[in-house]
Design goal:
The structure holds 2 protein chains of 2 kinds. Chain A is mainly α. Chain A has 22 helices and no strands. The chains are: A mainly alpha, B mainly alpha.
Chain lengths: 515, 47
């Protein structure tokens, strides 16, 4: 049996779903719906799921299994397998290792806040914070912006970061079957269970304040779902829907490629891709879409919702929801459930981010899993210090921009073109259906060849004009923070160059061996 | 909550539930359950 192999079909699906279900499902999605036309947003959302999300899922699963057949678990080798004549395509595949590493560097720190907050909730440590301002101040103190020396200010946050980091590395030290697969197989049902408990609690809140009868759960659902038809004429709403689908499915970061590379030649990818996507959609639309916004509306009313929705995902998760849950009986338990739910969503995603770089070291340098994990752990632990100690200077935003936006959209656009046009649609379609448990409608042949690449290139172009170029030119960055941003960019260029050098070395060595 | 809101809520939930139930059912009832149970010949696909 191969060194890295999945134990069961459900295991790989749960792992991919675990990678996809993250904080965005519970925090980003409801805000996107409320701000982009309410129920009407679901029209572009479903259109983008059908034309971009599902095809991209199938593309990544198929490329992954195909590349795995050649002994490659990461994008450089896979892209080379798809387009052997091109000497440079493997360097493009480096993004599939670079991107997840960047995201991991800051994501793990935010994940550690969730672990910390689940403890704080359980022991009632933020009970005294009854206003938005005091809850924000509590978060600021935790992040190290309070009074006192740097070490004493940062001690609790750093301790939880070390615990979270160690937990991730511990899971990664095991082979796939006993590590990621086992964790996701248990964690995903627990996550769904916790979300269901919270959902039931929210839906039975009724009218929390009888003096304000309009502030109730039904109107809260209405705030989110009442359609605003005019939004459909706005290109930005369609762009927001495309962005949400792209971010939520975990496509474009190289993780699915690596997961699928551990499948056998005749293992199904068509049904598995569909199941992983639908599991993520279940968590997003049904669970994520019914918790935060309706609950916040019932307690704070329509007048405050605009400010709450615009305050962003972080505030919604760390400020608004703790305040809301303090008003319900057994608030400590429900606060704990909320943060533990997010922590589980976070850890199943962060372990998936570790995999492509570790798999690259394992495959291309013949390292053991433990050695590869040790190297990855040491390098990322050092890099993690930047978002921890320079959070206020825009380091996290900068890493998020390159990792979760730039690399993701670019990588997704190029892999869809590579799959449909370079590899060729005939071969691609045959490969996709090899060992398949379902037959994908023929209409998708056309979609994968024409529509998906076109939509992704449109999203890339629109995003570059709207957000990409202004951010690259540092137009929205405070002058005093520019030095930090430039330092981060220099470090990122260095990291990318090192990865390219490693790929170059591996291929050079292989060429020599063949000669 | 307006009727339009209910419409989108119910339609969205139904679409997702149907998709999720169908794909999970097919996955769990598939005869090819275990990846490691696949033919060992599959491993010989390298190059």
């Amino acid at each position: 049996m191969a060194k890295n192999a999945w134990g069961s079909k459900l295991g790989v699906i749960m792992a991919v779903a675990g990678s996809a279900v993250g904080l965005g499902n519970f925090l980003r999605f409801p805000v996107q719906v409320a701000q982009n036309g309410g129920g009407a947003f679901m029209i572009p959302y479903f259109v983008m799921l059908i034309l971009m999300g599902l095809p991209l899922m199938w593309i990544e699963w198929t490329i992954g299994r195909f590349g795995g057949g050649f002994g490659h678990s990461t994008a450089p080798g896979m892209f080379h397998s798809l387009w052997e004549k091109n000497r440079f395509i493997k360097y493009f595949g480096v993004i599939g290792i670079f991107g997840p590493t960047l995201i991991f560097i800051y994501y793990i720190y935010i994940e550690s806040w969730l672990l910390a907050y689940s403890c704080f909730a359980l022991f009632g440590m933020y009970d005294g914070c009854t206003t938005k301002e005091s809850m924000s101040a509590f978060l600021n103190v935790y992040q190290g912006f309070g009074e006192g020396g740097l070490l004493s200010r940062m001690a609790p946050a750093y301790l939880f970061f070390v615990i979270t980091f160690a937990l991730n590395m511990l899971i990664m030290g095991y082979e796939i079957k006993n590590g990621i697969e086992k964790v996701c197989k248990y964690a995903m049902p627990v996550l769904f269970g916790l979300a269901a408990i919270l959902l039931l609690r929210v839906l039975t809140l009724g009218t929390p304040d009888p003096a304000a009868p309009d502030n109730n759960i039904i109107n809260g659902l209405g705030y989110m779902w009442n359609p605003k038809w005019s939004a459909l004429k706005d290109a930005r709403v369609w762009f927001a829907a495309a962005g949400q689908i792209l971010f939520t499915l975990s496509c474009g970061i190289g993780v699915i490629l690596t997961y699928a590379s551990y499948l056998r030649k005749k293992d199904d990818v068509a049904l598995s891709g569909l199941t992983a996507a639908s599991t993520n959609e279940f968590a997003e639309v049904i669970l994520g879409g019914s918790i935060v916004i309706p609950a916040a509306f019932a307690f704070f009313g329509a007048a405050n919702m605009e400010t709450i929705a615009k305050s962003g995902s972080f505030n919604l998760g760390f400020v608004t929801m703790p305040l809301v849950l303090q008003h319900v009986p057994f608030s400590h338990i429900f606060g704990f459930i909320w943060f533990m739910l997010l922590f589980i969503a976070g850890i199943t995603s962060s372990i998936s981010l570790c995999l492509p770089p570790i798999a690259f070291l394992e495959d291309e340098f013949s390292m053991s899993k433990k050695s590869a994990t040790r190297i990855f752990g040491t390098v990322t632990f050092i890099l993690c210090q930047a978002p921890i100690f320079f959070l206020a200077n825009g380091v996290v935003d900068e890493l998020d921009f390159w990792g979760s936006n730039f690399c993701l959209i670019l990588f997704a656009a190029v892999e869809s073109v590579l799959f449909a046009w370079v590899f060729g649609m005939d071969k691609a379609w045959t490969e996709l259906h090899l060992g398949s448990d379902i037959t994908i409608p023929k209409f998708y042949r056309f979609v994968i060849k024409w529509i998906t690449p076109a939509v992704l290139l449109f999203v890339l172009g629109f995003w570059l004009i709207q957000e990409g170029i202004p951010t690259i030119l540092m137009k929205n960055i405070k002058p005093e923070d520019r030095i930090y941003v430039i330092t981060v960019r220099t470090a990122l260029i260095l990291l990318f160059s090192v990865l390219c050098f490693l790929v170059w070395r591996v291929w050079k060595k292989r060429e020599k061996e063949v000669a | 909550m307006q009727p339009g809101g209910w419409f989108f809520l119910i339609i969205s939930w139904s679409v997702i539930m149907t998709l999720f139930t169908y794909s999970m059912f097919r996955t769990l009832t598939s005869t090819k359950q275990n990846s490691s149970e696949s033919s060992e010949a599959d491993e010989t696909r390298k190059d």
